[in-house]
TrEMBL record:
Name by which UniProt lists this protein: Transposase
Transposase IS66 central domain segment(s): 180-454
Compositionally biased residues, Basic residues: 81-90
Region ranges (Disordered): 57-104
């Protein structure tokens, strides 16, 4: 300290110019240090935001985000589940008076095997000539050996005795080749590949092992293409029905086609399903699908902004919102998100209370809407408007909690539409269930080699999903479709 004092006094004794030079040098050093401090502060802020973002990603799971359960990773131990469902109070297993299902004996069996009594079990005397008093019955249910049945078609050939003309009978339209596979085998090929999701090679192996017939993958592909062509009118009919429906559920998911990520779109109700693959995710694909541009009802979706380009009513999936609210509550500890979570769950439970008008009681709806407004007010206090810190163009970056709050502020009617119209579901689970098996197909096969292959699979799968929703046997429906008589749902 004394040394610095002596150095400063030495400069002072040298005169005013020496002091000015020293002070100027110190100013330059301070300015340089200040610049470094500002750069470090900016870097620290950037890294803090990055760490927060990474921590938020690590905290996301299937309960508080859209991630599937298969991606959940538990480092130490599996966390306790926090189900939103309330306990029913019922014991696990079959309930009282539940009919159940079991094998029941038939009155007329296909085959009867008699187990004879030859001698007495006590004295060992012969009972061969003794009359049978009764039988104890036991029945075994099994399938007979599966083998190909060959049906030969013969067209008569006759010569006219008067003019000598040679006449030959015509075969039916279904018999076109000297040897060919029948309708049932073709429908089985489509059933195994498009419903049970067996790849072509494994489907061929199954036929060889079970039926004893060697069929090439090309034959199976031709059967699938035939079914696709026969379902062209069905697909257009389903689209027309969906356009006329009061409510449809829509979703989109990634689909690998030709080694690239493309998109599968779905529009459905509880009676019909329509799938459509496309290179794009947004409105270009939705226009090509041909449903939403002509739809005037209510579309339920996951708040993908492309849906809002269409002039119809909208309903946002509340199950999706509940997961996002849970994430904000856990990661940002916000009161408004916890309260909004409770409100949505309570309003869902109130849907069981209906009036003749087909909606909840108006006074009950008003209570929920007033509560909704109070929660929004709390959220605004917890998330004040951020002031712009830079002169960069565009909107100021907001937190996840603020973005979610803005959605609840701007789309209140779409979030609460299920309370005003009971035809509108609380969530978009129907579309999510319809997409699920398509994702399973992607896990099995990985990718479609061509867009045409994706189109074929999507149309056939639309048909299968529709017949399943209408409790129609899939094999029979596929066989009828290949025969040119596809199932068409009845719209009530």
């Amino acid at each position: 300290m004394n040394t610095k004092r002596k150095e400063i006094l030495a400069v002072y004794e040298q005169g005013p110019e020496a002091v000015v030079t020293l002070v100027t040098t110190l100013y330059d050093i301070i300015a340089e240090q200040q610049t470094i401090i500002e750069l470090q502060a900016a870097r620290i802020t950037e890294l803090e935001e990055r760490v927060k973002k990474l921590e938020e990603q690590l905290k996301k799971n299937s309960r508080n985000s859209s991630k599937p359960p298969s991606t959940d990773v538990f480092i130490n131990e599996k966390p306790k589940t926090k189900s939103r469902r309330k306990k029913s109070g019922k014991k696990p297993g079959g309930q009282k008076d539940h009919p159940g299902t079991t094998l029941r004996m038939v009155d007329v069996p296909d085959e009867v095997i008699i187990h004879k009594v030859h001698k007495c079990s006590n004295c060992e005397r012969s009972l061969e000539d003794i009359e049978v008093k009764d039988h104890e019955k036991r029945q075994v249910f099994d399938i007979p050996p599966i083998k190909l049945q060959v049906t030969e078609h013969r067209a008569e050939i006759k010569s006219c005795p008067h003019c000598g003309c040679k006449n030959k009978a015509t075969f039916s339209e279904k018999v076109k080749q000297p040897t060919q596979y029948g309708l049932r085998l073709a429908s089985l090929a489509v059933y195994l590949h498009d419903y049970q999701l067996l790849p072509y090679e494994r489907s061929c192996e199954l036929r060889a092992d079970v039926c004893g017939c060697e069929i090439s993958p090309a034959t199976l592909a031709r059967a699938e293409k035939t079914c696709f062509e026969k379902l062209e009118d069905f697909e257009q009919q389903i689209k027309n029905f969906l356009i006329e429906s009061p409510v449809i559920n829509c979703d989109e998911t990634g689909m690998r086609i030709e080694g690239k990520r493309q998109w599968l779109h779905v529009a459905s109700t509880n009676k019909m399903t329509c799938y459509y693959p496309h290179q794009k995710r947004g409105s270009e694909a939705m226009n090509a699908m041909g449903i939403l541009p002509n739809f005037n009802g209510t579309v339920v979706h996951y708040f993908w902004k492309s849906y809002y380009k269409y002039d119809c009513d909208h309903s946002i999936c509340n199950a999706h919102l509940l997961r996002e609210l849970t994430s904000v509550s856990e990661n940002d500890d916000q009161l408004w998100s916890k309260a909004m979570n409770i409100l949505l769950l309570m309003s869902k439970n109130q849907l069981t209370i209906r009036e003749m008008s087909g909606c909840m009681k108006p006074e009950r709806i008003k209570e929920f809407e007033d509560w909704y407004g109070q929660i929004i007010h709390i959220g605004i206090e917890e998330n004040p408007q951020l002031q712009a810190k830079s002169k960069k163009r565009g909107r100021t970056k907001q937190t996840t909690a603020k973005n979610l709050l803005d959605r609840f502020i701007g789309y209140k009617n779409d979030i609460l539409r299920f309370m005003h119209d009971l035809k509108v579901p609380f969530e978009n689970n129907l579309a999510e269930r319809d997409v699920r098996m398509m994702k399973v197909q992607q896990k099995i096969s990985g990718t479609f080699r061509s867009m045409q292959g994706a189109l074929i699979f999507s149309r056939v799968r639309s048909y299968i999903s529709t017949v399943k929703k209408n409790q129609v046997p899939v094999m029979d429906a596929i066989r009828n479709a290949i025969a040119g008589m596809p199932f068409i749902p009845t719209i009530v």
